[in-house]
Amino acid sequence: MGFMFLKIHNAFDSHCHFLGTGQIAAGLSLKNLKSADDVKDLQILPNHHQHNWLVGFGWDQNLWVNPTFPTSATLDKYFETIPVFFARADGHSSWVNSVGIAELKKLGYDFSKDPVGGKIERDSHGRPTGILTDQAHIQALQKIPYFTESQQTDFLKLSQKLFNQGGYTHVRDLSMTATQWKLLAQMSEKKELTVCVEGFVTIENLNDLPRALEDIKWMQQNPNRHLRIQGIKLFLDGSLGSRTAFVSENYLGTEQKGILCWDLADVKTVLAATWSKQLEFAVHTIGDEAVHQMVQVARSVSAEGILGRLHLEHVQVMRPETIQMMKPLHISCHMQPCHWLSDQSWMNQALAPATIKNTFQWESLRRNKIDLHFGSDSPIEPTSFLLNYNALTESAKKGWPKLGDDWMKFHSHPDKSWNSSFTEFTEEKIHQVYFDGEPVL
Ligand SMILES: [Zn+2]
Fold it and tell me: How far is the CA of 162 from the centre of ligand 1 (A)?
């Protein structure tokens, strides 16, 4: 790019967690821990609390001196009286202290067995070690009393500032809620909103579907020109970092291929129900086998004459035959090149060579004319399309196929008529962002 002044219209982050971005930025960061015991040096502030809980985010044992999962015993040394819930950097595991385990039990969390699609780590006596993974993590998170509306508005405002600073005017939020829609609409009416947000409502299980459809109906009945509701989202597998993304080859040094969080018959039911209501369906699929199974489900629903758009989120590993199967279906893939930068340090230790060969297939998707968009996965990665540009350049140097088209195309909202926005930037930095024709930085 050099020093040329460049311009993107409707600069689009195609996969983020909007409220979570502000929440994490205002919250307690654990990303600089070098060991479990480093929690003793954390500076705790009032806004690090979710009701009576201390919450934090961002630890990654892969970066520690001793790269094994921590236990509640370490937290208990420094936090004896307050429940603690520390989420892992990938948002798929949590680390809880003994007071937290006791508090979760009081809130009705079942520690007696692993939930479907999740794991409660246990010691040799069968006692929980304090690590909860995937559905076990999600269900614990849902038990903790949520932030107040005033805290949520603070997070939304901080988040939109971070997205604008990263160059974005349009975001696709995979964690939309009715409350968030209401708070964003209030900001829009006060002319305080400087991003367009399209959203999906996440469901955790089949019983959650009627609630999500009701929320979507309410959003449709309360329209706002800066907001769009698209459909339903679910998590089909885990993450590569937690070795829970569902892959076709065992993770190195294990007999494990990761997990599927849903029964595929239930996924089919949700997909058919969603498409029947003219809504779109988004699914978190990171491992090649999860992607493959999901495309097969979409194919079987389509064969029954029910048609709609399927959004595949992340698709970090994909086999060539799966990409071929996507062609006749209405599929959009949402990738985050920046994950390539983060995953480089440990990929060779965790993934079989056959799996690594099929990682980060953006060029194959483009060549096969599958609808492709780029995003940040914020707060997992920073809100920056320049970081994605950097990842595309660096990955090409390391042997991943070079993206054979202008990368900016994949960072622009497909609806050019939705708001009049553009971003001026160079390779080094974002210069100005115009939203509704007005500069916002
Ligand atoms: Zn996500």
Answer: 17
For the beta carbon of residue 345, count every other beta carbon within 10 angstroms. Answer: 11
What distance in angstroms lies between residue 439's CA and the mean position of ligand 1's atoms?
29
Express each pLDDT in 298-344 by its tens digit: 999 999 999 999 999 999 999 999 999 999 999 999 999 999 999 98
Distance from Cα 16 to the centre of ligand 1, integer Å: 6
CA of 174 to the centre of ligand 1 (A): 6
pLDDT digits (tens, 9 = 90+) for 41-82: 999 987 799 999 999 999 999 999 999 999 999 999 999 999
Ligand 1 centre and the CA of 95: distance in Å? 20
Tokens in use for 95?
A: 């680390």
pLDDT of the residue at 345:
86
Domain identity same for 353 and 235: yes
Distance from residue 4's CA to the centre of ligand 1 (Å): 32
Does the residue 29 lie in any domain? no
Backbone angles phi, psi at 381, to 5 degrees: -125, 160
Q: What's the CA-to-centroid distance between 342 and ligand 1, angstroms?
A: 15
Ligand 1 centroid to Cα of residue 284, in Å, is 7
Domain of residue 246, residue span: 149-435
Q: What is the pLDDT of residue 4?
A: 79
pTM of the model: 0.87
Neighbours of 223 (CB within 10 A): 11
Q: Give the mean pLDDT of the chain.
A: 95
User: How many A from CA of 157 to the centre of ligand 1?
Assistant: 20
Ligand 1 centre distance from Cα of residue 378 (Å): 7
Q: Are 310 and 331 in contact (CB under 8 A)?
A: yes
CA atoms of 46 and 317, how far apart (whole Å): 40
Is the pLDDT confidence value at 262 over 90? Answer: yes
Whole-angstrom Cα distance, residue 39 to residue 46? 17
DSSP state of 146: P
Do residues 91 and 158 share a domain? no
Residue 345 Cα to ligand 1 middle (Å): 21
Picking from 94, 109, 143, the residue at the C-terminal end of a domain is 143
